[in-house]
UniProtKB/TrEMBL annotation:
This is DOMON domain-containing protein. Keywords: Signal. It comes from Caenorhabditis elegans. It comes from the Eukaryota. GO terms for biological process: regulation of glutamate receptor signaling pathway. Residues 1-18 form the signal peptide. Coiled coil: none annotated. Residues 68-179 form the DOMON domain. InterPro entries: DOMON_domain (IPR005018), FRRS1L (IPR042789).
Length: 262
């Protein structure tokens, strides 16, 4: 009886912690892109992103993508800030999840990288720089969707890495892409333009600060952090995946059965 009660409590707790992408305010208080048009980012979008400014120098990033079939060891979903609608010379924030083919033990990590032409190179940060630039990382694999969210600095308070780290308080086109990844890099995204997983690009340029003009943001980079930490950061383990959304329908049955036992 005690084990069953703990199972119910655990189920409800996991559902409460599930990542929810709220599309309310898209175009007014946040920047959103979802495919296919009219899809629900919590149900059936094959790729999508929502950006919102939630505090001074803090931008919340939420991304979703359909999981690759058959499952790959690592899959990424990423956004790029670009001065035009074409890949090349873009600042990228990428979320990578490892052990995609397993039910437990997956590892999410967020990186900053740079599109040099048609190739992508990661900008390695030490732990202090990474902790300054990114916070509140969370992700889950729900049914056939990969979901990731984190908070990123708009004006990074770290060294600009010879121009590879950008001040995002400026107009940009926004792009989103997904694909398989390797330990040190991402692989090419879907190239078939007819695929629902082909990268999406905003129709117009936008400045992220537009959606948070009630906040004041820094105007310059901070000096390089002096540290003895290594530059290349290992993947960090985290909690196991959240419960599948398909289990939501089982809650009334489980609760009624639980009540009958008493």
């Amino acid at each position: 009886m005690g084990s069953f009660a703990l199972l119910v409590v655990s189920l409800l707790a996991n559902l409460a912690d599930a990542i929810f992408i709220d599309s309310t305010g898209c175009g007014t208080t946040k920047m959103c892109m979802f495919r296919p048009r009219g899809c629900d980012p919590n149900l059936d979008c094959t790729i999508g992103v929502a950006l919102s400014v939630i505090a001074p120098n803090r931008m919340k990033v939420q991304m979703v993508a359909a999981t690759i079939v058959p499952a790959v060891q690592q899959q990424y979903v990423a956004i790029a800030f670009s001065h035009d609608k074409f890949m090349g010379n873009d600042s990228v924030s990428e979320c990578v999840i490892s052990n995609m083919g397993e039910f437990v033990g997956f590892e999410p990590e967020v990186y900053v990288s740079y599109n040099k032409g048609k190739s992508n190179d990661r900008v390695f940060l030490n732990d202090d720089e990474h902790a300054e630039m990114f916070t509140d990382l969370a992700s889950e694999v729900v049914d056939t969707r990969l979901v990731c969210e984190f908070t990123q600095q708009i004006m990074p308070q770290i060294d600009n890495k010879n121009g590879l780290i950008w001040n995002l308080n400026s107009p940009f086109y926004l792009m989103a892409a997904t694909g398989s990844a390797q330990p040190d890099e991402v692989n090419v995204h879907e190239l078939n333009r007819d695929s629902h997983s082909f990268p999406i690009t905003s129709e117009e340029m936008f400045n992220p600060v537009t959606f948070g003009n009630n906040f004041e943001h820094p105007t310059g980079f901070a000096p390089k952090i002096n540290t003895n930490r290594i530059e290349k950061r290992p993947m960090r383990p985290t909690e196991s995946p959240k419960v599948s959304a398909s289990l939501v329908s089982l809650i009334p049955f489980v609760l009624s059965f639980f009540v009958m036992l008493f």
